[in-house]
Specification:
Blueprint (H helix, E strand, L loop, with lengths): L1 H23 L1 H5 L6 H36 L1 H6 L3 H21 L4 H22 L6 H7 L1
Helix pairs in contact: 1-3, 1-6, 3-5, 5-6
Length: 143
Amino acid sequence: MILFNFSMHCLYIIILADYILEVFVREVHLNEDVQSEEYREHLMLDTWEYTLLLGLLTIYPLLYEGTQASLSGVFDYVTDLKNYGDLLNIFGGFTHILIVNSYGPHNFPSRVTLIVATLAGSFKLFLLLRVFTGFAPVVAILM
């Protein structure tokens, strides 16, 4: 189960990185006219496609954490501070998806929620890496 969680989260991180490169760094590398209507249409289509994938990949952790909360009890779940990183990852990702699809990618709230989602996702990746004995000391140092 932990290996499956790790694999799903790695896929999420890879798509998130590709999303950042394609949507937020694209015009710098392709020297596109960011004022053109064609650019805006491609940007919104790319944004919609990537956020759909990211949203689908975020559903699994939401179900996993929901199951964990129901099995351990909601009170025990919310009193365990380790669960807040997972909740920040889930709800930060969903918040970014809602904001970027409502207001577009190139505004302050969109970028802030992307930073939160990326940092929370990276933190969760480090937590999942401690399962592998070779990475456990590195994760302990980073924590």
